[in-house]
Amino acid sequence: MRVARLVWSPELLEYDFGPGHPMAPARLDLTMRLVRELGLLDAPGIEVTGAPVASDAVVQTVHDPEYVAAVRAAGTRLVPDESRGLGTEDNPIFLGMHDAAARQLGGSVDLADAVWSGDVQHGVNVAGGMHHAQRGSASGFCIYNDAAAAVRRLLDLGAERVAYVDLDAHHGDGVEALFWDDPRVLTVSVHEEGRTLFPGTGHASDIGGAGLAEGTAVNVALPARTDGGQWLRAIDAVVLPAVRAFEPQAVVSQHGCDTHGLDPLAHLDVDVDAQRTAAAWVHRLAHDVAQGRWVALGGGGYAVVDVVPLAWAALVAEAAHAPLEHGMALPEAWRAVAEAMSGLEPAATLGVAAPDWRPWRDGYDPADPVDRAVAATRRAVFPLLGLDPLHD
């Protein structure tokens, strides 16, 4: 069995909203160039496969048929359909939009197939993680929700419990909405609070549908300027115990790196080292609770040179069981290409060092707004998961 499968094809760069849009294909291009320069494609535990365009039947496992038809029409005729979020400032229409978005989704679904069947332990799709798309509309740069489709495929293949972990700066609202009433899916989102960031949802009190699904939505809404150590403290305090208590048979995670302080669209201050640490924790969690079944996706992230390629190349390395060293020098060949493409001088190293952070068991500080946010989530949902909100 291969350790990891990376979904990649240059055709994934065709998901392109046009010049000036934050969701620039250069994010993926520079990521994959760095992955190659670091030698990760030659790592013994990894294989690379292309991403197929998902069939309408597969896309419709999480989207209404009428919406899929609208996406295809908008991307063929270039006629907006703002009632479905198509042709807005966030989601401009472009030729071939359906195929581009269905290819993202197809890649993530194929990884779910491979992980569940045992062909590989882990799957990575850095072009995926389109977590805002709703059943019948586009939202927040996301046309089709590949993350939800990967979860759905795991359920359809026989998984009785799947955990979805969302580490993007923005609330994973689309995935949560699609599984709000499904007790088989635990959605856990750690994000900037809705008062200061799109989509304005994901409050601690949002805990899932009534009845058996109550307690299967977990939301940690963090204040602006939360730093890497505080962010890791929140993950340690909520994500890890919640997922362990749920005992999933597979883990799907979204690793949007717009939590970084350089990101132009969010207001958190999480460095690459903390992002890498969180990815390692999710990786370890998948081995501990789900026999290693792990599908890791990209997502948001708009600091195109100094953040996205570093965070996601490190994610690929983590999934391949070939983690990169904190503070290692970045390849000069990659830095030259990145500078030529962007006009910016890239970072010289991959982060600095493993971050300092304070475990939740060290005590709760009611004067700390991050601790208050964490405590609100634990009080709201931990009893429903059989956990003590006050203690480890």
Give a written overview of the molecule.
There is one protein chain. By secondary structure, this protein is α/β, with parallel strands linked by helices. Strands 2-1-3-8-7-4-5-6 form an eight-stranded parallel beta sheet, sandwiched between helices. The radius of gyration is 19 Å and the shape is globular. The model has no long low-confidence stretch (mean pLDDT 97).
What integer value in Å does the Rg equal? 19 Å
What is the molecular shape?
globular
- The amount of beta strand, in percent, is 5-15%
The number of domains is 1
Sequence stretches where pLDDT stays below 50 over 5 or more residues? none
Strand line-up across the major sheet:
2-1-3-8-7-4-5-6
Number of strands: 8
In the CATH classification, which architecture applies?
A: 3-Layer(aba) Sandwich
Domain Histone deacetylase: 21-317
Protein name: Acetoin utilization protein AcuC
GO molecular function, one term: histone deacetylase activity
InterPro entries: AcuC (IPR003085), HDACs (IPR000286), His_deacetylse_dom (IPR023801), His_deacetylse_dom_sf (IPR037138), Ureohydrolase_dom_sf (IPR023696)
